[in-house]
């Protein structure tokens, strides 16, 4: 596709690109392909993404909609028809969407329903950039263009000559409201559609301001249009349709669109984000914002494909969680509360699952964008105050999906890495509350907490699914609370309690198989045991995937497995074994299984989160060159800036964050510590401009596809043998000079003093 798109892209970008002294130079946003990962389906995910047109952490995104209303696969690359252009807040197809409505131009005949209005399109006549989208709708002979702000967007429709041009507003299939105001060339309304949880007083109010009068109006329900109607109250499968007379081919109809979760008046305030700017000015501003955000990390390489992949991943990382808060007429920060249904002061974010994103996405924010994470931490305080628990999956309120209590990691990592200026004491209380109580739904608080606190594990035979995975995650979450408790100088007995619980992972270690295994309430391991059985005691994986989920005490796990040699053998085995599986728990092959099977990397399942850190664990056993080999193998083999460019669900920035961190040459194996574990840098040079003004400059001499091994490393000019680097050392500004080789250096990073943090070797934890 890229060979087809490049001439078109360069044409369009010449309109929006700011003046450059060398106009032929590509700016960073030009490397991004929003279509990366869109060639997906329920049975096989190559990312399960959609072309998200928006601004970093913006409240609203826009996408072309190829799927039917309510279909989580709202845009798929293999599709050939577009049904509309949808305002979306969807974090993933599995979570689906909330607060959505769509806009669609049609010609020739007034038709409103989603099947009747759908038009053929081709990727050859489609341009997707983070700040701009354009596509030609063949059946209507119309080109649609979109450019966004955080809470608003500009549309531009280029019509043929016709007296039968229409724009359809679809408020989706729940109780919705639309009203046409011809005297103001305006449509207002709201949609109440959402997919997850139980929300109170939920409405997404919208306002659409056109730049010319309507020649006809109507409202519609299902396939029936009521001509001349101006208002439709709380109907299903409904919306509005307005007509225009186009005097010559190429004439444009423009619309400014904004929305609010607070009120129709707030939607009008949000429309002021556009102000008096025209379409091209909004697009140019969006381009500048993206260049600035992406420019936080400047990668340099002769390999253009790798740069495209890097910046396409970085683009994905800065969308979720998205802002749920708005700024009122007095300049105050306000939000709709999905927990109480009220409009309340302060920050709030939505659209992320901590089971995925605690691993690398939030650590990346703490590294490169701590100011936005400060807002997110303040939003978590409001989640707790209004809902009684911290969310583990928000979309936009509590969503009953996935496991763990990983808000503990998200909160602790921010504070441990220097986050300040918010009420950490309230957040600590929230962590304690979540760690010691079951929530109103399974995925909030800790399911099985009474068993866990009394026995040291969640039993296999008490009717709680994914029990071993829950135990392992709770143990790590307890470590996160332990770290925060120490930082806050909490009472000694409290600190010791969470430290003790963090060692609960040992209760599930089966010395016979050297793997984690479900355990019954009576203390006996569950039988029969198949380490390749997906699900059951584990979550979207098997024992070979989850046994490494001891982020905070890899040395303790290493000792349980018999020492360094046996530990490395177990790590090696993941790649040596065939990709066989037992899918009996699910009753069929789920997409995560299929994605592991077809990658030809043994039992390594990079397409899902539980095992993504495992490659970096060789650093804890004195064989860092194997981390260097496998991290580059994954980057080279499993990531591309193409529609099939991921090897599984992208998942709200996490799978992208693995790549971005790894390409820089390090990865946060254990959030809630200050360490990043070293790998193999991908680029000749990377310059990170930190928010404090300092720079981290990473160079790697003699670097190419074959020279993936680190022969030597200098940190600020001095030889450096450790297998990790400190967050705080980087924040001071740093220069890392890697010397690369095609053969491993088996003497560097092999001493115990070179190994990264483990609780069992921490002298301060004794």
TrEMBL record:
<protein>
    <submittedName>
        <fullName>GH92 family glycosyl hydrolase</fullName>
        <ecNumber>3.2.1.-</ecNumber>
    </submittedName>
</protein>
<comment type="subunit">
    <text>Monomer.</text>
</comment>
<feature type="signal peptide">
    <location>
        <begin position="1"/>
        <end position="19"/>
    </location>
</feature>
<dbReference type="InterPro" id="IPR012939">
    <property type="entry name" value="Glyco_hydro_92"/>
</dbReference>
<feature type="domain" description="Glycosyl hydrolase family 92">
    <location>
        <begin position="266"/>
        <end position="741"/>
    </location>
</feature>
<feature type="domain" description="Glycosyl hydrolase family 92 N-terminal">
    <location>
        <begin position="31"/>
        <end position="260"/>
    </location>
</feature>
<dbReference type="InterPro" id="IPR050883">
    <property type="entry name" value="PNGase"/>
</dbReference>
<dbReference type="InterPro" id="IPR005887">
    <property type="entry name" value="GH92_a_mannosidase_put"/>
</dbReference>
<dbReference type="InterPro" id="IPR041371">
    <property type="entry name" value="GH92_N"/>
</dbReference>
<feature type="region of interest" description="Disordered">
    <location>
        <begin position="741"/>
        <end position="766"/>
    </location>
</feature>
<keyword id="KW-0106">Calcium</keyword>
<dbReference type="InterPro" id="IPR014718">
    <property type="entry name" value="GH-type_carb-bd"/>
</dbReference>
<dbReference type="Pfam" id="PF17678">
    <property type="entry name" value="Glyco_hydro_92N"/>
</dbReference>
<keyword id="KW-0326">Glycosidase</keyword>
<keyword id="KW-0378">Hydrolase</keyword>
<dbReference type="InterPro" id="IPR008928">
    <property type="entry name" value="6-hairpin_glycosidase_sf"/>
</dbReference>
<dbReference type="Pfam" id="PF07971">
    <property type="entry name" value="Glyco_hydro_92"/>
</dbReference>
<keyword id="KW-0732">Signal</keyword>
<dbReference type="GO" id="GO:0016798">
    <property type="term" value="F:hydrolase activity, acting on glycosyl bonds"/>
</dbReference>
